[in-house]
Amino acid sequence: MKIVFAMSLLVTLSGCIAEAKDQKADGAENYALMCAGCHDPGPGHPATMLLQQAGRPVPALIGRKDLELEYLRAVVRQGLIEMPPFRPTELSEAEIDEIYAHIMRGKPSKPATAIQTTKEP
Description:
By secondary structure, the protein is mainly alpha-helical. It has a domain at 25-103: Orthogonal Bundle (Cytochrome Bc1 Complex, Chain D, domain 2). The chain has 6 helices and no strands. It has helices at 2-22, 27-34, 36-39, 46-53, 69-78, 93-105. Helix 2 (27-34) crosses helix 6 (93-105) and helix 5 (69-78) packs across helix 6. The protein is globular and about 60 Å long. It starts with a helix and ends in a 16-residue tail after the last helix.
């Protein structure tokens, strides 16, 4: 009985693993995995903070309308300032295209404001 249950469980789990491998991340998921940590709006995102310090009107990537696909591809492949380059095995050309589409569909964020950490008397 235990062997039958174990075999049944093994077959079920292998089916789940195969199904998960077949599912491909979309532009939003890849953005969340590869870009959001540095490029989301607000404090704690180094690339956004750097662009905000440079006076860019929309420092976060989401909702940027001045971003061209070829520029994004070049930066992703070659890196820029502290951003490392991404190899084609990490992000394919199609995945970069999907991330770009996700960025362009988004609404621009409002500029971040400083968080007040002390209470006024």
